[in-house]
Amino acid sequence: MDAFYASVEQMDNPELRGKPIAVGGGGTRGVVAAASYEARKFGVRSAISGYLAKKNCPDLIFVRPRFERYKEISDKIRQIFYEYTDLVEPLSLDEAYLDVTVNKKGNPSATLIAQEIRKRIFEEIGLTASAGISINKFIAKVASDFNKPNGQKTVNPDEVLSFLEELPIRKFYGVGKVTTEKMYQLGIFTGKDLKEKSEEFLAKHFGKSGTFYYAVVRGIHNSAVKSERIAKSVGAEHTFNENLTSEIFMVERLESIAATLERRVKKYDIAGKTVTLKIKYSDFSLQTRSKTMPYFISDKSLILDVAKELLYQEKMKDSVRLLGISLGNLNTEVKKTVVVQLKFDF
Question: Which residues catalyse the reaction (predicted)?
């Protein structure tokens, strides 16, 4: 989907159409969850602070996120997907892989199916979407960003290798900002440069990811579209308007976070053995502390007891701006997708 959260807000509120808006990001500690294309022209994008976003775009309008509404729209979009194939693997509320090799419409062209789906999303829901079409998930994902917004790109089998060789390394899915800089230092700027490096060289500098890079630049990515995903963990967290310096106040916040986590695990009938406490300090450094129980738990009181034990495990090194609790090592018979939305302060 194109700027999904922001586009939903503009669709629901005509007064916001054509204006630079940011979902989330309000207040001194807020973080932008999504930005409209009008705002992106000024360098406003997801994950930057609301302060920086406002500095880049003085006319920016902040909108409080409405995740229930986004999920409602997302469900409608997925229902359209399922009319074409049952092999749908959601990545988030606004993105999914579809395997249409064998599809319910009997259409042999993935390109035409993508056009039809995008047309239906626009006509039935009112939002634009973009698509990438190719022989595997990796190339389709990369291609989906090429003609945004409201466009699509097909990379045919005989075009795959040349497409990847010409691709700037920063556009390779899975190559983040830090890895991009490291690749630049190694003289890797394009797919062609990457392809010239041996598997041993890439493994030496990038570990297991190096083997992945060696394969995908040759068009090899054998990950199937999975219609069911096993949840590895589920969690909840909160960023505070003011840093916390006392464990007493932290326990109060952990109680609320544990209650949120309990609702989520019970909604999906999940229990887990490992409780992890996430602490982000005022200097943005991150620490996690974990404890594994001999039995599965899902109740707030038990989760909170372990979280408090982890909290007092050692002295805080600084004031705290974020706390989170997650439950892992889940009972393996559970096969459900757990979507966890972060809270944004205003």
Answer: 95
Distances (CA, A) of 345 to 27, 32, 248, 252, 342: 7, 10, 21, 17, 10
pLDDT per position as a tens digit, 219-252? 999 999 988 655 678 888 888 888 899 888 999 9
Asked if residue 94 belongs to a known ligand binding site, the reply is yes
Distance CA 179, CA 188 (A): 11
Residue type, 183: M
Q: Is 199 a catalytic residue?
A: no
Distance of alpha carbon 188 from alpha carbon 201, whole angstroms: 12
Exactly one of 15, 38, 72, 95 is catalytic; name it: 95
Token pair listed for 155? 């990379």
Q: Which domains does the chain have, with CATH numbers?
A: 4-65 (3.40.1170.60), 68-157 (3.30.70.270), 159-216 (1.10.150.20), 233-330 (3.30.1490.100)
Residue 338 CA to residue 2 CA, distance in Å, equals 23
How does pLDDT run across 101-120, given as a tens digit for each residue? 988 888 999 999 999 999 99
Among candidate residues 191, 158, 161, the one with its CA nearest the CA of residue 173: 191
- Pairing between β-strand 32-35 and β-strand 88-92 as defined by DSSP bridges: unpaired
Tokens representing 89 are 């693997």
Residue 190: predicted pLDDT = 97
Give the pLDDT confidence score for residue 345 in this predicted structure: 40
- Give the tokens for residue 95: 């993105």
Whole-angstrom distance, CA of residue 304 vs CA of residue 78: 35
149: left (phi over 0), alpha (psi -120 to 50) or beta: beta
Q: List the chain residues with pLDDT less than 50.
A: 334-346
Bridge partners for 323 per DSSP: 238, 279
Quote the pLDDT of residue 241. Answer: 81
In the chain the first and final C-alpha atoms are separated, in Å, by: 25
